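cron nightly-structures :: item 1 of 1
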Amino acid sequence: MSEGLSFERIQEAFPGQVVLKALTQETLFPRVPRFVVENLLARMGGTAEAVERVRRLLEAQYQGPGSAEWIKDQLLRKGRFVLIDRVAVQVDLSSGSYRAYLPSLGDHPVEVSPKLAEEHPGVLFGMWGTMELVYAGGRVRLTQFYPFQASLVRLESYLQGRSRFTEEEWVDLLLGSVGLEPQGLSRRLKLLYLARLAPLVEPGLHLMELGPRQTGKTYLSRNTSSEAFVISGGKVTPAVLFYNQLTRRPGLVPTYKVLIFDEIAHTAWEDPSILSILKDYMESGQFSRGGRTFLAEASLVFLGNTDSDRVPLTRVLPAGLKGDTAFLDRIHGLLPGHEFPKITPELLYQGPGLVVDYLAAAFRHLRQKAFPLDLEAPKGYTQRDLRALRKWLSALLKLVYPNKDWPSSFWQEALGLAQELRNRVYEELHHYNPDEFPRRRGGELPYAEASSPLSWEEVFSLLPSDYHALFAGLRGLGFPPPQEGPEDLVENGQVVGCSLARWGERRLVAPGLGRYGLEVTPDSDPEAVVAWLEGEA
């Protein structure tokens, strides 16, 4: 953290919106989301003295799963009960009513007014807050609900607070506020972390990040805003994502500001109509369902794990998305996931920072702000490329210079990062369809595929285990490792299979793919394979 960013100085700039981040990592708050804890701590001073008060409050009002019978006993005895919990509302078409479910009450339904979903649409998918339950006539009703959302009616106070810090101090304060220790991070890594936050401030900014595990891909969005929703694997349908025509209930896209597809390789896109709706939305910000057209501004984030940082990273995408250039072209940026370090205790910030719920409220206001950008398209860039650059540039400027007083140096730095992130998408497009997406800049891709050989250790980590013995035989004969391990085999823009390894233009492939190289089985003779690779067979 930059020198001079003391609790007192931040509190002076943002009165009542500062908390010591170390307090939110206490084991005293094990089952409650961080934005809930920080909201409560900030209300009670934001210092160590507030911890005990919040602990007592949560002990009294947060019951958690397994408390259903005790809560029902209290309702039966007193007729009223106040608690902190997550409420999720469901529509009951048979009775024309709304019912809420709380983890603390298990499967026991709670009646709610239709106005609750109108005032707080997030309750349709789950929302934290303080609520009052009333028992009368054999029924439990939710009569009062106060969501955990910071109050920020106007953005001016946030902008005034920002003006009290230098660029370096503000970047560090942003990272510290979302729980990351900025000390020791390079300038580039700081900007890449801000790029992870970009969908929170820029509507319709769609990004993808594929990289190693445990680097905190969902950490920032999940812990910064209650308006970000995470889908972790499973089947994806138009009713869940966009609009349920039976219940007339809006889906996740029109309800949340950011929709995160975590573990994207484990999501199933089985409905053939969902991809066309998805692409339509990503392109235009609108979609059609049941003869109606809906507008939305959710940013979509696609996250996945891959051990390789070589093009194509998108080989890990599930069927339906993998190799679909129309889908990939609508992604505004591909983050270099292998540059992010694994989340360790040393990377978690302990000092003073802004309450994340307050920061999320400011980001919500910034989403509605337009930052007019006079940007000339680089040579060879398409309209989609230019749109991606504008969105990234707008997002980074909103995060670091929300007062619109940025220096030209930061503009150029942000533009350079925007071009890099979009160019990484272009690399994937070029791999799948080089005719439609030819090389740029005199025949070179900005981040060209590596041509240096792999090590044998890397080869074995990528190969199916059945083929390890065959490739061990190749190594035993003194043959060098390949330039590439398994690669997608593309025909007419579609993936038709996967190779085993490639030396120059010569590939080894599994049975049935002989038109792309030499068919080999786990029992193939290594000497015959080497003879073919050397052009002797």
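cron nightly-structures :: done
The chain has a mean pLDDT of 86.
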